Amino acid sequence: MLQTFANATDEQTIAGIVDTVFDEMFETVFAKAEQFLVIGYSFGSLLALEIVKRLEARSLQGKLMLIDGSPLYLQRFASHHLSGFDDEHLQMAILTLVLSFVLPTATQDIIKPIMDQSTYLERVDKLMEVARDSNPFSEEYARKMMRVLFYRLKAAMNMSTEAKEKIVSPLVLVRSAKIGDVEEDYGLSEFTVASLIVKIIDGTHQTMLANPELIEIINKDTL
């Protein structure tokens, strides 16, 4: 729900992003619930932690499951790949990433005219023109996605990994076996006073989502 771009904002903090939807989400999903289950994947894990804090503040009890994500993991990823980037370089990195998906075989003859545009909006315009037949999304959605990706990455880069307020709900982390250079629990032991279970499954950050073991874990641990 929080990852949809339909009501996306330009918020650059995790708390700010949750602020924009929490009241409506609470009334729609949690107001009459006796317990909650919140699942977050990747960047969504940051939002999930913030949501659980707010649900607990309203005296609700439940469980949190994070799939290959945590404040420490995502900040290290952002620092490793985007350290020292100003806004323009970050925007260029997003364009490069999107190009790799929508035009994976693009040559420099295609890429250069896009990158040679003067502003980010002009580069996005050129990308939409060049990739019109390859883009699986509507042009409106693609434009919004590229804007929101920029602000989501800035939020990940600017966040603190210090747990100022710990949750009291049990936490399950399902993480990729391919990820190294980070603590086994992704630093999540600092964010909860309850039990923390770590389960490691095959696959990369992306391909683990297709691993049947993940579905089994979700069903077994949450239903």
UniProtKB/TrEMBL annotation:
GO terms for molecular function: fatty acyl-[ACP] hydrolase activity. It holds the Pfam family Thioesterase. InterPro entries: AB_hydrolase_fold, Thioesterase. It is an enzyme of class 3 (hydrolase). Its EC number is 3.1.2.14. Residues 18-221 form the Thioesterase domain. This is oleoyl-[acyl-carrier-protein] hydrolase. It comes from Anopheles maculatus.
